[in-house]
Amino acid sequence: MRLIIILITNKLTMKKTYLLILMSFITLSSIAQVEGNGFGPGYKWTIGLGVNTIDSDGTGFNQAFKTKQWNFKHPIMFTAERKWNNTFATSFSLSFNQLEKSNLLDGVYPTKDFSYVAFDLNGHLYFDHFIFKTTRNDWFEAYAIAGLGIPVIINNDNNNADGSFNTGLGLNFWISDNWGIRLQSVGKFAFNHGTNNHSNHIQNSFAIIARF
């Protein structure tokens, strides 16, 4: 966790506001490690492998379902989640994609394709059991997302790293005790929006997940 703080502050020169967000997230994660919600000996780890789409056309949520502008080229995504109790979890994800010149990038068409790599550390707040009675072994789970990311735009000239504040929603559907599918949508708000091809964007993902 300290390494992530050093990397973000040194490489991205974040403002104090973003440092405050990061400190709040670390505090939340530390509190969540106290397993006081009756989690017991259930499944604690969930790993996933799937695909993702990047929507960075600059229209925000106004045209969130305009799939023609979604980037879907080499769209691999790996996730690992540690659940601390019935409510809180921490996840890490590594995703790859390509921002194609045929799709809008923050309102304009780029002159060439850009490779996209993102490292994300998010907190998950599971809320389905607050709405209706569920347990860890039930077939359905829903969670809210808040965290930080480092999206990297790669081209032939240079590699531009930025930071992002992440927020979104996710759904888990368990087909068996150990196997399921995950649908997730995350809005990523770039710290340096509009510079070096970085922009606010939406990342949707579908993954096969396994828990143990």
Please characterize this protein's 3D structure.
This protein is α+β, with helices and mostly antiparallel strands and 212 residues long. The protein has one domain: Porin (Beta Barrel), CATH 2.40.160. The chain has three helices and ten strands; from the N terminus they run H-H-E-E-E-E-E-H-E-E-E-E-E. A hairpin with a 4-residue loop joins strand 3 and strand 4.
Structural class: alpha+beta
End-to-end gap = 24 Å
Question: Number of folding domains?
Answer: 1
Care to count the β-strands?
10
| Overall mean pLDDT | 82
Distinct helical segment count: 3
Strand proportion: over 45%
CATH architecture: Beta Barrel
Q: Briefly, what CATH class?
A: Mainly Beta
For this structure, the quaternary state is single chain
SSE succession? HHEEEEEHEEEEE
What are the SSEs and their pairings?
Layout: H1 2-12, H2 16-32, E1 45-55, E2 70-71, E3 76-83, E4 88-99, E5 114-126, H3 128-131, E6 140-154, E7 159-161, E8 164-174, E9 179-190, E10 201-211
Quick overview of this protein structure:
The protein has 212 residues and is an alpha+beta fold. The protein has three helices and ten strands. Helices cover 15% and strands 46% of the residues.
List keywords for this structure.
Porin, single chain, eight-stranded antiparallel barrel, alpha+beta
